[in-house]
Amino acid sequence: MRSIWQVAHRVLRAPVTRRAWAELAYVVAGFPLTCLGVAYVLTGAFLSAGLAITALGVPLLALLVPGARGLARVRLGMARTLLGENIASPAPFRPGPGFFTRIRGGLRDTTGWRAVGYLLAALPVSLLSLWVVIVTWAWGLVALTYPIQHMLGVNQMTIVDADGVTRTGFILGSLVLDTWPELLVVSAGGALLLLLAPWAVRAVVLLDRLLIRSLLGPDRSTQRIADLRRTRAHAVDDAAATLRRIERDLHDGVQARLVALGMNLTMVSETLGDDTSETTRALLAAARDNAKSAITELRDVVRGIHPPVLDSGIDAAIATLAARSPIPVDLRTDITTRPTAAIETIAYFCVAELLTNIAKHSGASRATVDVTQPGGRLHLRISDNGKGGATLSSAKLGSAKLGSASLDGGTGLRGLVDRVATVDGTLNLVSPPAGPTVVTIDLPLHT
């Protein structure tokens, strides 16, 4: 008995719940957006087909896809706000710089084409949903209040019956309901429609939910890639934290002990008496020199693991590299958002390796380093006025434009290939004969 009352209570209060009104708002507001999406896709498709014999057909078709993404993103936002659909947004469209790159990216954008499919498939679902809203909510409200409308003389339906009598009331086919008992039956029917309205709308909205989940959310391969990227980001960040911890342990532990050892050996050497043999003095001097060499080598190792200067930020670290460079370096930095530690480390070692390359192999008299953050990315541009002729073989590792690298005259670019590829960065080299050589590196701010 209690469960029956619970069901009855749920049914009776369904029309006044927030969910019912949110789903109604989604259907009503979503219909014009659906019409806009269909018009956009069909117009773009017809224009592309009409211009297929010209050079504009394919680019127009490729540019159709990002626009479909935008409209689908609006619909996905509505579903999140009104329906509570917490679907992860697909990966953003990042085709890369250049007109032809954008065209190729648009034609190959699977997520964008799925958005196009959703915009077209949503039309019949939206039509069905709007029809259900009209039949249940609209007609239910009209029927519920019809006795009042009849009393006020508004919204009247008139018919002439078989006897030639003009009758005014609520007309269903050939049935005329114009007496007060009959009008109360109409009102009861309207109340029944309003009770059924939330459930009917919820059923048709479920079709749209399924479309959104299958076409606007990430597919299995995209989700798998996103999971792998998150796992890789955790691994990269964890590796950076581990290297920083090792650097601090070496600096505060082993290096401090070696310094103390060197000081003790110096003190022992200074306290030796005149009767100490030359062999003993030579052994102490050799031990002291070895301790100094070990400290120097350990400091080099520590800087190679994680340069302490990075604790002050990538701008300060690159400024230190520029100051230490054997050739003059013009440095310009414009960093407003600090990248994560892993990105800073990769950027630092890239600049360090490239400045070393310039000093050793380019024959340049001057170098330039520009560090900026366009579009929420970390962009590095390293150039010199050397002899040029450097080459970087073009291949792809992951999403990076990298491969087995070679630089005429010797290089460490293979290490840069591995470093940049770990975070989906890109590296491009332009080095015509007689120069100048320009290397651009694009990295995300976060792993």
Description of the molecule:
- This protein has 447 residues and is of the alpha+beta class.
- The chain has three domains: 2-216, no CATH class; 244-305; 309-444, 2-Layer Sandwich (Heat Shock Protein 90).
- Helices cover 63% and strands 11% of the residues.
- The chain contains twelve helices and ten strands.
- It has a five-stranded mixed sheet with strand order 4-5-6-10-9, with helices on one face. A three-stranded antiparallel sheet has the order 1-2-3. A two-stranded antiparallel sheet has the order 7-8.
- A hairpin with a 2-residue loop joins strand 2 and strand 3.
- Mean pLDDT is 80; it is low at 394-411.
- InterPro entries: HATPase_C_sf (IPR036890), HATPase_dom (IPR003594), Put_sensor_dom (IPR025828), Sensor_HK_TwoCompSys (IPR050482), Sig_transdc_His_kin_sub3_dim/P (IPR011712).
- Its EC number is 2.7.13.3.
- Residues 348-446 form the Histidine kinase/HSP90-like ATPase domain.
- It catalyses: ATP + protein L-histidine = ADP + protein N-phospho-L-histidine.
- The chain crosses the membrane at residues 21-40, 46-65, 118-142, 183-205.
